Amino acid sequence: MSEDTAVDLLTELLAFDTTSHRSNLALIAFVEDWLNRHGVTSRRVPDASGEKANLYATIGPPDRPGVMLSGHTDTVPVTGQAWTVEPFRVTADGERLYGRGAADMKGFLAAVLAAVPKLVEADLAVPVHIAFSHDEEIGCVGVRTLLADLAEQPVRPAACLIGEPTSMHVATAHKGKLGARLHVRGKACHSGMAPEGVNAIHAAARLTGRIEAMAAGKATRGPFDERFRIPHTTLQVGTIQGGTVLNIVPQDCRLDFEIRNVPEDDPEELLGELMRFAASLEAEMRARHPDAGVHLERLNDYPGLSMADDHALVDFVLALLDDRSLERIGYGTEGGLFQRELDIPALVCGPGSMAQGHQPDEFVTRDQLARCGAFLDRLIDALSGPQARQRLIAAGLCAHDST
Ligand SMILES: [Zn+2]
User: Fold this and answer.
1) Residue 392: which pLDDT band, with cuts at 50, 70 and 90?
2) What's the pTM?
3) Closest Cα partner for 140 from 311, 301, 360?
4) pLDDT at 198
5) Which of 25, 36, 159, 178 is deepest in the core (most CB within 10 A)?
6) How high is the pLDDT of residue 402?
C-alpha cells in the first residue's frame, strides 16, 4: 500500500463533517466513487430517513465467506472542545495528522481504501468485505440495518476485523453497555405539608442507592474477567434532574444510569433486579398517591465482545502484526453485535489510540497508518495464492468443503 495514498485519502475523509447527527452520504458517495474507479461495486444499506447509509462491498470470489474490514464513518462532535487546529481539515505536523476522526476511525477507513488497488490485483482465495457504517458513536445504531441485511444474504463473512484505534494491537474483548433512564413521578405539594406529598427526589435517591449497592456487589463478588482493567461489571448513575424550588415537594425526577458488563454477566438480569426493587418502591409510593410511580425508558445497548485469546483467528491476525501483544480496550465496538447477531468471530485492531479519540486536537500518526497499511498488505498476501486455502482452514476462515 502506498502510504501517500492513505494520507491523501485521510485528507479527503476528514474534510467531510460526519458528526453523528449529520448525514454521511457525501462521504459514502466519495467512497463509492473510489471503489468504482477500481472496478469495485458496492451497495448502500440506508437508514429509515434516507439521510444516512452503511456501505458494503466485496472484493474477490463473492460466493465464499471472507474477511470483513469494518469501520464507522461518523464521529463524535467537536462542540465545546478547545481545538487549536481546524477539526474538519487535515493539519499535518511532522508525524501527526490532526482532525476530527483521525484516530476514531477515519485513519482506518483511509488505510482500507488505500489497500483497494492491491486487493483488486490480488489472487484472493476468499474475499475481503468492506463494511462502513453510520451512527456508531450514538450506541452502534446504524450497523443494525446492515446486520439485518447480511442475515438475509446467502454468504456471510467468516471473520470480522474492527479497525477501532488500538495502536495496531489486537483486542479480543470489550464490555457490553446498557443505558437507561428512570422517570420517577411523585406528588407535589407545599413543603410545609411534605408528608402529604410524594417526594420524587427521595425515591430517585433510593434507586440511586440501590444502583450503587449493586455496583459494590459486582466489585466484591464478580464475576471477574481479568482481560479488563476494571475486571468486573460496573453500574453508575450519570445524570439526575429533579425538583423546581425548595419549598415544593418535587413531583418529578429523572435519572440516567448505565450498566457496563463483562461478557460473563447478563445486563438484562441486573436490570431485572433493579426493576424488582423499583416495583416495590412504586407500590410504597402508590399507597400514598395513585399517580406516583417509576417508569423505565431504555436508551441504548450493545453487547460485549468476547473472543477466546487462543481462538484461531487471534493467531492468524497476530501473525500478520509486528507487535503480538494483546490490547485491553475500555470502549465498545460493533464487534459484539457481529458476534452475537451473526455469529461472526470479531477482533478489534486499528491505527491510532483512543487516548486521542473523542479529544480535541485528535490525531493519528503517519507511523500508525503505515503499520495498518503493512498489516493489510500481509493480510491480502495471506488470503491469496495457492497456499491460502490451508492457512484459512487452519484459522477457521474457510471450511474444508467450501472451496
Ligand atoms: Zn470509534
Assistant:
1) confident
2) 0.90
3) 301
4) 98
5) 159
6) 44
- CATH classification number, 176-301, choose in 3.30.70.360, 3.40.50.1820, 3.40.50.300, 3.30.43.10: 3.30.70.360
CA of 102 to the centre of ligand 1 (A): 10
Of 331, 330, 336, 313, residue with least CA distance to 393: 313
Q: Do residues 251 and 164 touch, judged by C-beta distance below 8 A?
A: no
**Residues sharing a CB contact under 8 Å with residue 196, sequence separation 6 or more, in sequence order:** 189
Class of domain 3-173+304-394: alpha beta
Q: Are 341 and 77 in contact (CB under 8 A)?
A: no
Percentage, residues of the chain above pLDDT 90 = 90
| 391 Cα–ligand 1 center, Å | 30
Element (H, E) at 368: helix 366-382
The length of the chain is 403
Q: Is the pLDDT of residue 183 over 90?
A: yes
Name the region of 385 (left: φ>0; alpha: ψ -120 to 50; beta: rest). left
Give catalytic residue positions. 74, 136
Domain ranges for the chain, please list them.
3-173+304-394, 176-301
Cell of 7: 494520507
* 105 CA → ligand 1 middle, Å: 6
Using the Cα atoms of residue 223, residue 227, residue 229 and residue 234 in order, give the sign of their dihedral: negative
